[in-house]
Specification:
single chain, mainly alpha, three-stranded antiparallel beta sheet, 8 helices, 3 strands
């Protein structure tokens, strides 16, 4: 057994980085889930709405990458969101295999109606953690994503028609 294997074997499960990150995600999301449920929006739908609100209309592959969603999952969800009149999908002018997704006025109204509740939850989290620690947490998470890598943009392009890349997961970042 190598030194690294021995250290890993000795580390308690509660100190497992993936487990800690999942527990952290659950602790954070527990602040937002009641508001999402109140408005009938799933966590994944909210990620899509939030990404499109922040970034404007975008190609499906980029949206899948930003939202950490697999292409087929995103395709099915966008179909339901389109039927509910939350998004529109149109063919990309330069490449008919790709789709551009945009928010509808109905989704923008939903976002606006949820904004104050979301801001309140962010304020509560900041109050509990402290501004300095929260700022440090954001910086550390950005560093982890940058250094360990996410899904490269080239792979995200493969999702434009709903296909998921064969080798890597899109679930590389927490909500």
């Amino acid at each position: 057994m190598t030194k690294i294997q021995k250290k890993t074997a000795e580390r308690p499960a509660r100190r497992s980085l993936p487990l800690l990150l999942l527990q952290t995600r659950e602790a954070v999301m527990s602040h937002f889930r009641p508001l999402l449920r109140e408005h009938g929006v799933s966590e994944q739908q909210w990620r899509v709405i939030r990404a499109l609100q922040d970034g404007g209309p975008m190609e499906m592959g980029r949206l899948a990458n930003i939202c950490s969603l697999h292409g087929p999952s995103l395709t099915g969800m966008l179909t339901r969101m389109d039927q509910a009149n939350f998004v529109t999908r149109s063919r990309f002018e330069g490449d008919q295999r790709k789709w551009i997704v945009a928010l509808t006025p109905k989704a923008e109204t939903l976002f606006d109606s949820m904004r104050s509740g979301m801001q309140l939850q962010y304020a509560l989290i900041e109050q509990k953690l402290g501004r300095e620690d929260l700022t440090a947490l954001y910086a550390m998470l950005d560093t982890v994503i940058e250094r360990l890598g996410g899904v490269p943009d080239e792979e995200a392009a493969d999702v434009g028609n709903g296909a998921a890349p064969a080798s890597k997961s899109r679930r590389n970042r927490p909500t």
